[in-house]
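forwarding from the other thread:

> can someone predict this with tetrahydrodeoxyuridine?

sure thing
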Amino acid sequence: MTLAAPNSERLIAAARAAAANAYAPYSRFAVGAAVLLTDGAIITGANVENASYGLSLCAETVAVATASAAGRLADVVAIGVVGGMMDAAGIAHGTEPIRPCGRCRQVLNEAAQAGGRDLTVWCAGLDGDRMEEHRLSTLLPHVFGPADLGLTPTRG
Ligand code: THU
């Protein structure tokens, strides 16, 4: 009998696979992200850099936007994030867990608010066994959200 892998392992594996498609010719830092939905489906993203550096998109933002485009923003329950520097051959490595940047935390908060739940955030490197588990509410306390605009979170 094969036991299903825990969601943390599924998400980190999916995020590592997604990182292979990072478009990061400027920083040469590849990031992969994978969001878990309520039904167990996984949607991935990788960073997409731009010659106008500030326009670059983070992997987490791409994954959340893809989930939203599929009508599933409110169904996001967790995210796995990995990253590492590319070597001369363009293969990325790294054992140090990376954590979502501040902007990505705010983007993730929109999914959390839409679904009315806190999110689990698993962070790892592209290689190795090190993994951290966080709550979005811990990574982004005192959040700015729909309530600040006089709105209650909405699923659509
Ligand atoms: N990056 C992400 O994709 N997610 C983060 O949370 C942090 C940074 C990307 C942006 C840029 O393409 C590269 O990593 C280096 O900053």
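Residues 123 and 132 are 5 Å apart (CA to CA). thats all i got for now
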